[in-house]
Amino acid sequence: MDIIKKILAATDWPPSSAKGVRYTCHLAKTLQAQATIAHVFHAAEYNSAARGMGVASGRTETDNLLVKLLEQDKQRLQQFLDQHLSDLKAELDMEQVVEMGEPHTRVRRFPDR
Fold first, then answer.
1. What is the pLDDT of residue 58?
2. Looking at the chain, which terminus has fewer C-beta neighbours within 10 angstroms, N or C?
3. How far is residue 41's CA from residue 98's CA, in Å, rounded to a whole number?
4. Which domain holds residue 65?
């Protein structure tokens, strides 16, 4: 029988996703598995946000803003976990991941990490 070693929970921030993330963490704790909590943001949405914030069309400026937006989402994930998992975090082997890309392809790659 294969032992489950890693469990992935993807979130896009709504309160309803917190229930799924909590369930994943409870399951990971029970199975003594690692919980990976991930948010993958579509690159086109970051580019749209960059344009909406009035960033010039220069590649360097856009790249700098994309890095800032990615860091903001990392902080947002931390806040999400603090709000919804504060009672479980200390008891878990948990990885937090925020990446930019195509969500449906990035999430499929997480088990291979």
1. 60
2. N
3. 8
4. 6-112
